[in-house]
Amino acid sequence: MTQATKKLAEGEYEIQLDILRRDEIGNLAANFAQMTQSLKQLDDAARVNGRDSSGLLSE
């Protein structure tokens, strides 16, 4: 999970965690995966909006 958090901090969202536990660590890994997906969606939306905004400013 340490490697995954470093990758996420660097902006890499395609992270796969292979933790198949049903304890707190498993729950943490599942929540991390969900958080990563949410951050990717927000980043994608921001990039689209940024391009749209820059296009409007140049007209």
The geometry reads as elongated
The poorly predicted ranges are: 52-59
User: What's the tally of helices?
Assistant: 2
Strand content: under 5%
Helix content: over 70%
For the termini, the CA-CA separation is: 46 Å
Average of per-residue pLDDT values? 82
* Gyration radius over CA: 16 Å
Helices and strands, in N-to-C order? HH
Instruction: Tell me the major beta sheet.
Output: none
Q: Structural class, please?
A: mainly alpha
Overall number of strands:
0
Walk me through what this model shows:
Helices cover 71% and strands 0% of the residues. It is built from two helices and no strands. It starts with a helix and ends with a helix. Mean pLDDT is 82; it is low at 52-59.
Keywords:
59 residues; mainly alpha; 2 helices; 71% helix
Brief overview:
The protein contains 2 helices and no strands.
Write the layout of secondary structure elements.
Elements: H1 2-9, H2 24-57
